[in-house]
Structure formats: C-alpha cells, structure tokens
Amino acid sequence: MSLHVQLSPEALENLRRQKRNSTISSILVSVLTITVLFLVMGVFLLDLNIKESPTIVTYEASTQVDETITEKKVNTQVMKKPSAPSSSMTKVIAASADSPVSIPVPDVDVTTPSMEFGDGTDFGGGWGSAGDFGSGGGFKAIPSTMRKRCDPQDRMRRLKESGGTAKGEEAVVAALDYLQKTQKADGSWEALHPVGMTGLALLAYLGHCETPQSKKYGDTVLKAITYLVNVGLKNKDGWVCSTPKAGHGPAYEHGIATYALAESYTFCSKLNIKIPDLDKVTKKAGEILMAGQNSVGGWLYGYAQGADGDNSVGFWQIQAMKACKHTKLWKDSEFTKHSKLALEWLQKVQGPNGTIGYRSNPNQNPGLTGGGVLAFQMWDEGDHKAVKKGVEWIDKNASFEGAGINLYYHYYHMQAMMNYGGKEWDNYNKKVRDPLIKAQNSDGSWDLQCGSHGQASQMHMSTCLATLMLEVYYRFLPSSAK
Length: 482
What we know:
Blueprint: H1 9-48, E1 69-71, E2 93-95, H2 144-147, H3 152-161, H4 166-182, H5 194-206, H6 218-234, H7 249-270, H8 278-291, H9 311-327, H10 336-349, H11 369-378, H12 385-397, H13 407-420, H14 422-438, H15 458-470, H16 472-475
Antiparallel strand pairs: 1-2
C-alpha cells in the first residue's frame, strides 16, 4: 500500500507564483549586472581614446619661438651623379621668416631614434652633458657633443656665457651667405684641392647645425655632401680626393673630407635624411684613414708608412676619427688602438716647453701646438699633463698681430683654449675675438693669412677657418662644462 500526498490548489498557486517571481528577479539582476559592466567598460575605453594633439615647435636664431608655421613639399633623394639641386629638394617645417636653423621633418617613415648614441664622455669629462631641447624630434638622437649647436636659444646663451658676442654670430651668418654665393654648380668650392676646400665649407655649415633640410642653406649643404659622395664613388681606390696621391694634398684632403662626411652622416642618419651611398663612402673613407696610420702612430703624405708622423696632416685624421666614431658605423672599440697610438706619438714629440711642432721637431712650426692639445681633449685626455704644458705655451706665445695672424694655427688654438677654459681662455679670447670679427670683409669673407696652407685658395680657406673659430663658442661642449 502506498501513500500519495496531493497539494491543495492554493498551495500549487503559491508555488507557481514563487517560481515566477524568482525567474523575473534573476532576469532583472542579470540585466542590471550587464548594464553596469558596459558602463564601466565604456568609461574606460573613453579615457583611453582621449589624445592630446602634439605641439610642433620651430627655432630661430632670435629668442622668439611662436611664429606662423608653413610646410614645403620636397624630394630628399640624391642621385649618384645629380644635376645641381633646386630649392625644392628639401622639406622643412619652419618659421615664415628666414632663420639660420630649421627643424627638419624627414620625408620618410620615422622610427624612434636610439637614445644610446654617444658614450657620454666624448671630448673630456663635460662633453656629453647636454640635455634635450624643445620638441626637436630627431635632434634628440644627435650625440650630445654636437646637439647643443642646434638649439638657437641655448646657442645664444652659451655664446654669451663663453665669451662670444652677437656681432660674432652675425659674422658667422654673413660668412655662410658668402660661401653659399661662391659654391660651384657641382657642389664644390675652389679649383685647386676642391675636395679639401669643400670639406672645410661643409664643416662650417654643419658647425652651425645646417643640414640638407635647413630652410636657408639646405640646398648648399646637400650639394656639398653629394659632391663628396660622388668623388668617393668615382675613385676606385677609395680615396675621397680628386687629385693624385703624390704630394701633400691628398692626405690633407682625405682627412678633411672624411671629417665632413662623418659629421654629415651623423646628422643625416639620425634625422632620417636619405642620401644614397653616404654611409658607404663614409665607411670606406674612415677605413682608409685608419689604415694609413703608421706604426709610430702618426700619418705621412700619401699615407706612406715610416717611423715618423707629420702632425699637421695627423691632426685632421685625429679629428676625422672622432667624427667617425660618432657615426656608429664602427664599434667604439675599433678606435681604441688608433687613438691611443696617436696620442702616444704626440706625447713623445712634445718639447719640454710644451710645444708640438712639425714631425718630431717641437721647435719647427710650434704654432701647431694647439692641434696637439685638441687631440688629447677630443680623445678624453683633457687632464693629461701634455694638455697643461701645451696650454701654457699658447697662453704665453700666441699672438693675433702681424706675423701672428695665422688662421691655420689659430683654428686649433681657439678650440684648445676654449675647451681648457679658465683665465687662459679668457686671455686668449680677448686677443683674438674682436680683431677677427673686425677683419671680415663687407661681403662676408676673410682674407687673412693661413701660413703655407691653402695659399692658392687663401680667401676661401681663411673664411672657412674664421667661421669655425667663431662657432667654437657653441660648436662643442667644453670639457670644463658641468
């Protein structure tokens, strides 16, 4: 026998009502939960999508930064054998008024530049301490030893603090204008030793941070770089010179041209300015230069081997090597042997009075002493005893009167003394600065003596060296900078 319990109609109705209410409640809770989740996600996504428009800043030589911004379309491609580029070959964002420096905007896909460029110890303890400026984009990747010349506001500040003057800066711009007018259609300067003379002019433009995309001088710089690249490609033996290898000229020309090419490559590579074969020619030129060093650490005419070194030739190779190091086309360690050997040679041939002269004779052409001092400073030996001895001699003996006006010597002296700083720099700067500015011709050129160097191209060489001297206040950071 089994028992069956049957619910009353009222109980069944209550049970159905409870189930119905429970189902409705569950649905309402689910809908509310989903709604809240969508609201939270919507707020989160809305926050992610809020972007701030970037600010584009351009710089001028004056302290005014807010200017109307315009854009010029360009083609940055350079053929191996181009015709003279026109003003449409560059692309910049720049102020509507002429400015000595324009912040370039490359016409290529820009990748995030490496911030590991440079070793932070270039040119002595203080070289490399410069901070970034403004929103200069690619300029942040330029080695800090070179970057500060590219900030016009900081450049004017450092010009004043270092002992320069506004008149000196005006003289630099006038000189760059003169060089622009005297450049040949193929991008070179001068008939004799055109590679060396073009290299010097290009260094003067780069010293003012003028690149192929600068508004005022972009075409001039681009044509000069293209000329040197084409010469390097044309010469099957790799020498970046247009004259036979016999005699004095080629070693000078190759060193100066390599210096200019390496600085050009550093700027162009970090600003994504594509110049075909610039890397190839720069690398080849640097390899030939380092291979040309002899066993005692010096360099001779034609890069001949021997137990001697022509210091006048060698100083250009030492400067060029430092510029090559900045390119990062080589490992930094590859320069250690060459720089060490070069400084050992200069220390060996320095006289007891501090002079470094022609070859191993410190008393022959002692005016070269500044080049030796600069070599130690450039390769992180600014505290070496050879530097102090050399500076003491320059302080006592350097003159900018009569026979003492030799820009080939003063080109080195001014860099060495600026880098050394202190009262020695103040004394030297007072001797040289104002007389140099006053000696400029009305067309922006100089026609001062350069000793036995560049006699056939004296006005051009004098103008380039004088310009580089007046850029010394900001071209590199002195090792005394903190």
